[in-house]
Amino acid sequence: MNKTETHCLLCAQPLQSVPSWKILLTKQFPPCICEKCASRFEHSPTTTALYQYNDAMKDYLHHYKFLQDVALAKVFRQELHRQFKHEKSPIIPIPMHPLKQKERTFSHMEELLKAAKIPYTQLLEKTTTETQSSKNREERLQTAPIFQLLPGVSTEYKEYVLFDDIQTTGTTLRHATEILLQAGAKNVRSFTLING
Prior knowledge:
Layout: H1 21-25, H2 35-39, E1 49-52, H3 55-66, H4 77-84, E2 91-93, H5 98-104, H6 108-115, E3 124-126, H7 137-141, E4 147-149, E5 159-167, H8 171-182, E6 187-195
């Protein structure tokens, strides 16, 4: 059973919504942010991302990832569930380096999928603690490989879907795709929460 939030997770204003039969019967998640906060996020015109990067998304990412507010994983759960609920190919969230995950206390990509009740698998591990956000465009494009296959895993499926929080130059997704293709995957698609 989903916990019903009484206050918006972003602005702390009381939520007006009352749990309805529609939410229960259609298995929708109860709202966890108010309509005003939801309206600040701009939907992406692409089919490979849910949202565009804007000031509201910048604030969200700062609080979720860097201030470690894991409750914010629920903010986009309805949209992510709708996107992935019929997906047949295994979904692979882009992993964090183990040291970064220990520092942050949770994997932000995995928590987004857990909140949306979407199954995922992990085949990759990050080999560097460097973040792409600390590099300029040129440096990102020249980055050495940043992932490797987890020991003992194999690509058993023909197609995989990589899931990341934001795509700017596409370097992270390109590196992860190359590793999976080299390991025998026939096709790798990608989907992001945000188009940067």
